[in-house]
Amino acid sequence: MRIVFKALILLTVLMLVAGGSFLFLVKFEAHSPEVQVSGLPETAGRKLSFTVYAKDVRSGLREIEVALIQGESQVLLKKESFSVTFLKGSKVKEKSWPFEVEPLKLGLREGEAYLLVKVRDASWREGLKGNLTEKRLKIKLDLTPPRITLLSGTIYIARGGSALVLYKLNEQPSKSGIFVNDHFFMGYPLKNGVYAGLVALPVEDKNVRRFVIYAEDKAGNALEIPVNYYLQKRRYTSFKMRISDGFLSRKMPEFISRYPEAQKASLIETFIWVNQTLRSENNQMIAKITSRASENTFTLKGAMLPLPHSAKRSDFGEFRTYYYKGRKVSSAWHLGLDLASVARSPVPAAADGRVVFADYLGIYGNTVIIDHGLGLYTLYAHLAGLEISPGADVKRGQIIGHTDTTGLAGGDHLHFSVIVQGVFVNPIEWLDPHWVKVRILEPLKPYL
Predict the structure, then answer these.
(1) What CDD domains does its record include (predicted)?
(2) I need a labelling partner for 319 at 20 to 30 A (CA). Which of 55, 117, 254, 408 fits?
(3) How much is the pLDDT for 58?
(4) In this structure, what are the phi and psi dihedrals at residue 89, rounded to the nearest 5 degrees?
């Protein structure tokens, strides 16, 4: 009996020791919660976004507190507690909290501030308060948008036309440029805080709905100011073009051999696909190539050079409607000048620049695109071959190819386009020495 009694006592002691060990090791666990803050910028503007993440896989989360501190002021953003049971602790092992904060509305001012995050777990440590993780992160509040000074006078622009806008900023922006309707034209830094933006009004746009300079700083503060402009009248012609069976049988095999999807039940259906779908894809690619930030400094020193000894066969901005056997089948804008000389005429670069594209491009055939800086590009299409490679620097007048009939060309000629940050513009302006001097080079000169 005495042996049984001693065994019971020993068992009881062991159970108490085990229970004590459980309480000490589990309920008094010493691992602090894991806390992460993501998306918090070093400099914050009028809108501040970030996410707080907390995790404790042992005893679980007890409470969280998030606040912004500036000087003696503390603004509580979040305080949340979770249910904690005697044995199981908290069921909430991890959680994220997204925050969208407007410091001005919270009474904060420009300058240094701190984000304070406190998270406690469901441990019995610290007098049953739990283990504490505290993060104190410094941020700078910048609540003032950039100051924009418009340097240009009234901007004269026409449908399909180009213009130069000059403005000055009091700080280096994260983004700045000019909106013309829905298109954003990047501003390029010159000197002394001055920025230049070449802009364009697409030929398809008959009106200007929005013409503003936009600037945004690194903190996300943004400002826009209107640009004074005068919309010049410019008329573009419409043409009816008849598609013959001879043209179809001569030109469509080129596309069928290159594009399996061009194979249709009839050649006129192939033409419709080429003139609509392929044209759209080609123009989108051109826009993508010419919307990138120019790697070049501005290389234009005067008017662009046209194809020598050539005659103009088609104007920029023609709206063409195509008919086949008396039936309207398609339509398209003509976005360049068609210049014809003798067959296989040498094609010179219109201005100094860097080749950014040289390849076959659908309706344009063998095509070269040159970057002249400030988002200004020239395109040379229907070439006989590719005689130059991307990355090559070229000089005004340097031969880059020869005219031919590749692509959707009915006869030997050069299709010449000028593009401003993804928008086709009227080359006639850029071929005019007076226009280039007065509208582009003279305004730029003090800041280059």
Answers:
(1) M23_peptidase (cd12797)
(2) 254
(3) 87
(4) 70, -135
